[in-house]
Amino acid sequence: MTVDSTLFVCTTCGSTWEDGKRIGTSAGEFLLQDLQVALADSGIQLQSVKCLSACLNSCAVAITAPGKFSYVLGQLPAQDQRSETVTALVQLAQLHREKTDGFVPYAERPELLKNRVLGRIPPLLSSN
Ligand code: FES
Looking at the whole model, is its pTM more than 0.85? Predict the structure, then answer.
């Protein structure tokens, strides 16, 4: 059975601040908008989040699913190379969804994301 994966996108990353307030549309918000189109009807859920605590490695996203490995990715070129970033994230999300345990080996990761994984968290052990 394929378990849907959820891709979290930080919409605070790439923000412009003025007098302590965010102004305009952040790079993370643009990234989310493009991913909403790219992932429509893909079985991959999108969820915006205001921070993933990876701010020094902006732009950041994370992918997870019940019973699967989770990944946090950062330093995504969501401004300069947003189209390529979206394509790579869609590929990664599809691989994560297809894999029973969500483990996406380095060799299978899209080139743009190979060195942008900040962390990998194993699935929770069953409490039974
Ligand atoms: S603002 Fe995006 S990870 Fe903190």
Answer: yes
Task: Quote the ligand 1 centre to 49 CA distance (angstroms).
Answer: 9
106 Cα to the center of ligand 1, angstroms = 24
Angle of helix 27-38 versus helix 82-98 axis, rounded to 10: 50
Do residues 118 and 57 make contact, with C-beta atoms less than 8 angstroms apart? yes
Q: Where are the chain's structural domains?
A: 5-121
pLDDT tens by residue, 2-27: 778 999 999 999 999 999 999 999 99
In tens, the pLDDT along 90-102 reads 999 999 999 999 9
| Ligand 1 centroid, distance to 1 Cα (angstroms) | 33
The CATH class, in words, for 5-121 is: alpha beta
Tell me if 26 CB under 6 Å of ligand 1.
no
**Cβ of 52 below 6 Å from ligand 1:** yes
